[in-house]
Amino acid sequence: MDRLILNDDTDDNFLSDLFFIIFTIFALPIFYYVIYHMYISPLSKIPGPLFSSFTEILVSLKRPEGRVFEWFYSLHLKYGNVVRVGPKFILFDDLEAIKFILKDSDMPKTPTIAGIRAHYNLPTIFTATDKTFHRQRKRILSPAFSIKYVASLEPLIQSCVKLLIKKIDSFSKSSSKSPDLLLNSTSSQFSENNLPTINLYQLIQFCALDIIGETAFGRSFDMVEKGSHPLPIKILEEMKRRVLNHTFPYFRMFFKKDPWLDEFISKIIKTRIEENSKATKQRIDILQILLNSYNPLKQSSPTTPVDVTDGKTMSDFEIQDQIMEFLIGGTDTSAFTIIMAIIMLLHHPEKLRNLRLELESAFPELQNHVTSGEHECEHEDDLFLPTHDTLKSLKYLNAVIDETLRLFPVTLGGIMRQTTEDTIISNHLIPKDTIVSASIWKLHRSKQIWDQDVDEFVPERWFDLNPKIRNDAYYPFGSGSRLCIGNNFALMEIRIIISALIGNFDFVPKEGADLQIVQFITPSLRSKKFEVEVTRLRESKNYDINNE
């Protein structure tokens, strides 16, 4: 009997020891991790949601919705200029902190950005974290984005914009009684007033893709002309996949890449190589610059890391990924800015009148190329196509664009960097390897900087703006060494398209439009629609050349 009791005690002791060992190995480190980040870490004094002190789960849950930028904005309103959203993830919205993060210290991008690459191991100019690699890659591409070279691309941009306004003009002439012009188009229909209604958002996106095709890859994708193309949807799906990869890295194997985009890009490359073999002179554009840097001996693949010290040459996989990045970054950002500028102008008729007056003053043909009468505006040659050399100096046009980029920067969710050493920011000790995010959207809407009407669309605020504010508190294209390489190209495209649309057509927005913004790497309208009734401007009942 005594022996049986002794055995029971031994078993109990064994279970107790086993529990203690398990607790020590697993539970105790977790317990210490939570206690440290909640109460001991230098970041523990920074306010934020309770769970954010020891987990980024709240950020991860909100990213797939494309609405994390709104949550960050609301957190700043609740907690102030400095907010903690993860154990080592801090948001800053005050001017000096953002200036320090982006310009003065020029911190590198966080390694987590690798999650939005087409292939995790293959960095691009946008996703590079190594400064040497980024500098070398930027040196390869910079000739394609110099001011002189970008200016030489204007005829190609003009050709795509001309097709856009011709297409919209053809819609404006149609009616429900003669709908032939609208057949096979996903961009148009008719309103209850028997007026043609177009999806202006889609047409602008198509035009932006045609422009990047024409200027960067040697030929337009003819998306405006054909009226539909799978490319925009495929790009959106790829961006969503990358966001999921970035947010849930341990489940990356389940987020399979659609081979359609790779095949599409491979065809572009193959066609150019065949053309080069027959041509006496190579075309100089982004695609050719990438091909000129090709090194057949360089080994890299989706499963093999590249040598990040060598950004001077590119493997075939790197070229393909870099092209993918230009397709994504070179179209959605410009299209988003253009459509938001149009939306703001249509919701503020007095601002629209001011812009048209400036265009008419700068381009006398706007007043003279159309005669009155029943046959007015029947010729395509009457369509207005502005030159960029004149547009770039127009005060009100540039104020409209600046104000749009202030209210709706393409970096809505913030610009993330990572500290490389213990650093003091906004009087807080920020440990090494902490993600620090510059909340650009919140900075752009600071009442202390932009005045009490900060949420209003007021292009006039830019006329007498203190240059220091523009330099230190306005970041439409980022800053520092990571300033967007394509900003000059984007501004030329934006100026031309906005002016061509406003100078040729009268748009009346359809009621009940879904203008909800989402961001999957780049921002866009959730609905992918902005439907408007369209008429030729000088045929519109809303147009009076003497009063506008």
From TrEMBL:
Its cofactor is heme. The keyword Heme applies. Keywords: Heme, Iron, Membrane, Metal-binding, Monooxygenase, Oxidoreductase, Transmembrane, Transmembrane helix. InterPro entries: Cyt_P450, Cyt_P450_CS, Cyt_P450_E_grp-I, Cyt_P450_sf, Cytochrome_P450_monoxygenase. One of its GO terms (molecular function) is heme binding. It comes from the Eukaryota. The chain crosses the membrane at residues 18-36. Heme binds at residue 484. Belongs to the cytochrome P450 family. This is Cytochrome P450.
